[in-house]
Fold this sequence. Notes:
Layout: E1 2-5, E2 16-19, E3 29-38, H1 41-47, E4 64-72, E5 84-88, E6 98-102, E7 106-108, H2 115-135, E8 143-147, H3 152-164, E9 167-172, H4 175-183, E10 188-191, H5 197-204, E11 210-215, H6 219-225, E12 229-237, H7 251-256, E13 259-262, H8 265-271, H9 273-289, E14 296-301, H10 305-313, E15 320-324
Parallel strand pairs: 8-9, 8-11, 9-10, 11-12, 12-13, 14-15
Antiparallel strand pairs: 1-2, 3-4, 3-6, 3-15, 4-5, 5-7
The protein binds NADP nicotinamide-adenine-dinucleotide phosphate (NAP).
NADP nicotinamide-adenine-dinucleotide phosphate is lined by residues 40-42, 123-124, 127, 148, 150-154, 172-173, 177, 216-217, 238-243, 263-266, 312, 315, 317.
Amino acid sequence: MKALVCEAYGPVENLVYRDLPDPVPGAGEILVAVRAIGVNFTDGLLVEGKYQARPPCPFAPGSEVSGDVIALGAGVNDFKVGDRVLSLTTRFGAYAEKIALPATAANKLPPFMNYDQGAALLGATGTAHHALRQRGRLQAGETLVVLGAAGGTGCAAVQIGKAIGARVIAVCSSDEKIAFAKAQGADEGINYSREDLNQAIKRLTDGRGADVVYDAVGGDAFDACSRAMAWDGRLLIVGFASGRIPTLPVNLTLVKGYAVIGVFWGAFTEKEPAAHAANMRELFGWIETGQVKPVIDAVFPLRDGIAAIKKVTGRDVMGKVIVKP
Ligand SMILES: NC(=O)c1ccc[n+]([C@@H]2O[C@H](COP(=O)([O-])OP(=O)(O)OC[C@H]3O[C@@H](n4cnc5c(N)ncnc54)[C@H](OP(=O)(O)O)[C@@H]3O)[C@@H](O)[C@H]2O)c1
């Protein structure tokens, strides 16, 4: 099968489009003919050797796929050949024509979703959903500030914040990205390349600050938000797309009475499978009614996967990027 292969850790440009042996499903695994691959920020970090996981080379990066089940490993009862599935594993191997996955890491793709939407869903939307429901306990009527609101997971946080009934303030680096976030439902926008973020949040909340901040950016934006939280607020730590993991003077949390809460969706799906299953039911319900909709910015063929990854890591994406074998 064809795959986009990391032969040695290094720049994304070094990935090679070439043949790899077909994977064979082990016990408890399904073999999937990949129809679409979701590009995630971590795909670039993985091949550069900057991610926690370091699979042995050569390997195909990527963890988010949709496709058709074409073979079953021993002991798989929940799927049959021909099922349409979506999956996000903590593993690698998605930038390929076929992938073997643990059956427990797959969901059936609902009939109202196509393959591209399936591959665009979990990493971005699953994370935003878990963050706002379980970690942030976001309530209708509260003010949610979303950093990186035009990016993959930020865009999902805007949509889910509105589905929950919050007032959503989108924070982006350009007016074009703010217009996009407003098209996803955001009530207000802050262009933080032009306006002081701390002051702007206070201006839009009559000085109260944000009830919940969804932060997948980190760095200076985190620093600003840590000074613009409302009493009893929740500052959600999702990622560090800016490249800097911030540090916090913890006296701010004491004085302002807010909580800083870590979000790790992949670990949540493994440690709390029942809560994850309930989340998926709620999420699919929102998608069926149109309240939540994966937004696809661009689709690349697998042989051009390098350009797809660079579009995401290069701050040039609104919604999600998809790669297709
Ligand atoms: N904790 C979890 O379970 C979990 C799950 C999924 C993703 N994540 C993490 O969340 C982060 C965002 O993921 P994503 O898929 O939403 O990425 P994305 O689509 O690339 O969006 C990231 C956003 O960050 C902002 N940004 C600020 N400085 C940046 C820089 N130097 N380079 C790139 N972007 C920058 C950009 O918005 P502006 O241009 O508007 O500033 C961009 O839209 C990543 O760190 C990812 O690893 C965590």
